[in-house]
Design goal:
- By secondary structure, this protein is an alpha+beta fold.
- The protein contains eight helices and 13 strands.
- Strands 1, 2, 3, 4, 5, 6, 7, 8, 9, 10, 11, 12 and 13 form a 13-stranded antiparallel β-sheet that branches.
- Strand 8 and strand 9 form a beta hairpin.
- The longest helix is centred in the C-terminal third of the chain and has 22 residues.
- 39% of the residues are buried.
């Protein structure tokens, strides 16, 4: 499977960050999108409502977030769907362990040109200015290395347990993770199939919001060590139908950012499952330390994580 080159020098984070920013600029020029973002994303419409979105985002509970619908023009959306359908099965990475069952593709070179163009717009200066205005974070950096991001796909039986995200980039060690963008890419999604993203309070006592993975919908939210989210119930979609999304993450630069691994948590009614959730979390936390300090690849640890893939029916 192809992987993006994330083997960067941990001792030179500022230089790496500058190189990443340059990659975004070059990508935009290569696609002829120096100021053609609206051909791929309805950006002018978003910018026109930035003050409304800022208020909605910052007042949302249990943590700042906002849902934006109809973000891509119809013709762009249909082309993205066609490109996803044509993606090579060999280009997908599997994440199969007790706390999640999903697939991801972090090699943007294997994506279709329309999906790459959409991703480039979201990484570009104009969208980042919009994002800064809505979220209140200054000087956001889009992660084009796709550390934990990329295209995500779950099939029937797939799930993602409740968790807060890792808080710092694994290879650009001066980057603190701040904002998640999830663009749902599901041509059809029925409520009976499940898959709503649940947003829980910081004490993991109750779910305060749910977001259905409807196609052409973006969820933006502030991510920190207390922003618990997930879709923990196994999907009930028909065989062959996938829950799909494009996940992009935005960071700020700090001298010593807080570095914590993904923190999986049980729901109050998870019963005995909480012990396996905890055990799997500890194994993943150990791997997070190894990955961060020794640059071990995800492929090297997948066979170990598979031992935690058994899930009660």
């Amino acid at each position: 499977m192809n992987q993006p080159d994330t083997n960067v020098d941990a001792e030179r984070p500022d230089q790496v960050a500058d190189q990443v920013t340059d990659q975004v600029a070059v990508a935009g020029r290569d696609e002829g999108m120096v100021d053609g973002s609206d051909a791929y994303v309805n950006l002018a419409a978003l910018e026109a409502r930035v003050e409304e979105f800022r208020e909605r985002y910052r007042s949302a509970t249990p943590f700042p977030h906002i849902v934006l619908d109809d973000v891509l023009p119809a013709e762009v959306l249909h082309q993205v769907y066609a490109e996803l359908e044509a993606m090579n099965a060999d280009d997908w990475n599997s994440y199969i362990h007790f706390n999640e069952r999903k697939f991801s593709n972090t090699d943007s070179a294997s994506w279709g040109p329309t999906l790459r163009a959409v991703s480039d717009v979201f990484a570009g200066d104009r969208f980042r200015r919009f994002l800064e205005a809505v979220t209140g974070f200054d000087d956001l950096h889009a992660d084009v290395t796709l550390d934990g991001g990329g295209v995500h796909r779950c099939y029937r039986g797939g799930f993602l347990n409740m968790h807060s995200d890792f808080t710092a980039h694994h290879t650009i060690q001066s980057w603190r993770r701040r904002v998640n963008l999830l663009l749902y890419l599901n041509p059809v999604w029925e409520p009976a199939w499940g898959g709503d993203l649940e947003l829980w309070d910081r004490d993991m006592r109750r779910c305060e919001a749910k977001v259905a993975p409807i196609g052409n919908r973006i969820l933006l939210f502030t991510t920190d060590e207390h922003s618990y989210h997930g879709h923990p119930d196994p999907l009930q979609a028909p065989d062959g139908v996938a829950r799909q999304s494009l996940a992009l993450y935005y960071f700020t630069r700090e001298d010593k950012p807080l570095a914590k691994a993904t923190d999986y948590r049980p729901r109050p009614d998870d019963g005995a499952k909480k012990f396996m959730i905890f055990a799997d979390k500890k194994a993943l936390a150990a791997y997070d330390v190894i990955k961060r300090h020794f640059h071990v690849s995800d492929d090297a640890v997948r066979s170990v994580m598979a031992k935690f893939s058994r899930r009660p029916k």
